[in-house]
Amino acid sequence: MQTSHQKPTLILLHEIYGINDHMKSIIRHFERAGFVVYCPHLLGQVKHFDADSEDEAYRYFMDEVGFEQSVKAVLHLARDLKMKDVDTDIFVLGFSVGATIAWLCSSYEQLFTGIIGFYGSRIRDYVAITPTCNTLLFFPTIETSFNPQQIVAVLEKKDGLRLTMVEGMHGFANPYSEAFDADSKDRCFQEVEDFVNANLKKDRSVGIT
Length: 209
Known about the structure:
It is built from 5 helices and 6 strands. By secondary structure, the protein is an alpha/beta fold. It has one domain (9-199): Alpha/Beta hydrolase fold, catalytic domain (Rossmann fold, 3-Layer(aba) Sandwich). Strands 2-1-3-4-5-6 form a 6-stranded parallel β-sheet, with helices on both faces. The mean pLDDT is 92.
């Protein structure tokens, strides 16, 4: 058994909807797996949006929040955590816009042990970034606004970056989404577990699946 201070840390980054039932289920899942989980609320005064308010939620995030402000919030949290325990392993896990925020944090190797992102569609705007810590990204084969295969073809040339194409659509890992695919989600979470355990300090391990 790991003691509390030995547990790795997970910073979970939500979608445009905020900390909804999906994010709450992810928090519980990774706490059971052995992480200390932080899920910073990035939407300011807005608690969360319903799934049927996608357009409104997207406009709010882009107009009132944005990626730059979100990255600053994540870096601030990570630095606070490192001040408390410089040796702690900090992983960032993001979904959708959260995955793009996670990707933007991937150049801060002094703060993060690993970066994980699920269907970060706006990563296509930041393909010039080269991660300096180990990074794992999942892309679906189907996106409505761009061709994921083209983005993967660009990103796969970068060192330290692990890419997985998943049969399905944006949201395949979200049980509250019409795009949910249980088999794809389970396979990806097994890959997340392998990735985390490969990058943790040698005397630690987690069980995510």
